[in-house]
Amino acid sequence: MSAAPAGAGDPMVRFDFTGKVAVVTGAGGGIGQAYAEALSGAGASVVVADIAGKQAEAVAAAIVAGGGSALAASVDVADPSSAEAMAALAVAEFGGIDYLVNNAAIFGAMKLDLLLTVDWSYLERFLAVNMLGALNCVRACHPAMAARGGGAVVNQSSTAAYLYAGFYGLAKAGVNSITQQLAHELGGQGIRVNAIAPGPIDTEASRTVVPEVFLQPILAGLALKRQGLPADLVGTCLFLLSDAASWMTGHVVNVDGGQIFRA
């Protein structure tokens, strides 16, 4: 894996989210942790939400130790009542919600199987988390966002939505559609909804799913011949949440080293 260029992924100084409240799911590690830390670095109070409660607590504690404002929330995004409790905690502790980043997903422990043969109960759980989890969290958080006069949502998609990637690609294609539908449903409330579609990103979870023998041909097909880092996604996330993107909604933005070209 090639290193990122010097200065890459450090865009916090370009955005000021002072006084804002952000909820980030799947923030107990990896990409979600990078998003939570970046939002805190830009001045936001952050709800670090993850089904792995202890990991969320560790990330939130580190943010607080560094001078930021954060709290941990244990959440199962597939459970509407759990998502509602997460939103209620954000409102109770920080007074409202301005931003939601739907990053939670089953990935690191994902089964590798075919749509034709994958266990049906596993597929239902997988889609409930990786696709409908984003919808659950928007349904839970949008009333608090509307009460603040609007806000912004960033959903985590993937370039897998455009490739043969089995039920993972299916879930991410669903996230894209959810993004576009919710952009129309929530636009009248001043809430924008966009998504990021990362290419191959180097995380602990991805190393357990994609063996090196499969990774190298993928990297060879990129325009930029290196694996992405969580920091490479941060600037796009902050931009989409910020007022700099105030007339942008319903879009899926690829951050993928040139993996997917769409005319």
Please render the helix and strand layout as text.
Layout: E1 21-25, H1 30-41, E2 45-50, H2 53-65, E3 69-74, H3 80-94, E4 99-102, H4 120-130, H5 132-147, E5 151-156, H6 166-187, E6 191-198, H7 204-209, H8 212-220, H9 231-241, E7 252-255
Parallel strand pairs: 1-2, 1-4, 2-3, 4-5, 5-6, 6-7
Describe this structure in words.
This protein is an alpha/beta fold. The protein has one domain (18-254): Rossmann fold (3-Layer(aba) Sandwich), CATH 3.40.50. Helices cover 44% and strands 15% of the residues. The chain contains nine helices and seven strands. The protein has a seven-stranded parallel beta sheet with strand order 3-2-1-4-5-6-7, with helices on both faces. Strand 5 (151-156), helix 6 (166-187) and strand 6 (191-198) form a beta-alpha-beta unit. The longest helix has 22 residues, at 166-187. The mean pLDDT is 93.
The N- to C-terminal Cα distance equals 29 Å
Taken together, the total number of domains comes to 1
Q: Can you tell me the CATH superfamily?
A: NAD(P)-binding Rossmann-like Domain
The CATH architecture name reads 3-Layer(aba) Sandwich
The portion of residues assigned to helices is 40-55%
DSSP strand count: 7
The CATH class is identified as Alpha Beta
Proportion in β-strands: 5-15%
Largest sheet: 7 strands, parallel
Number of helices: 9
Strand order across the biggest sheet? Answer: 3-2-1-4-5-6-7
Radius of gyration: 17 Å
Task: Name the structural class.
Answer: alpha/beta
Instruction: Please trace the helix and strand order, writing H or E for each element.
Output: EHEHEHEHHEHEHHHE
CATH topology value = Rossmann fold
Query: What is the approximate shape?
Result: globular
List unreliable stretches of 5+ residues.
none
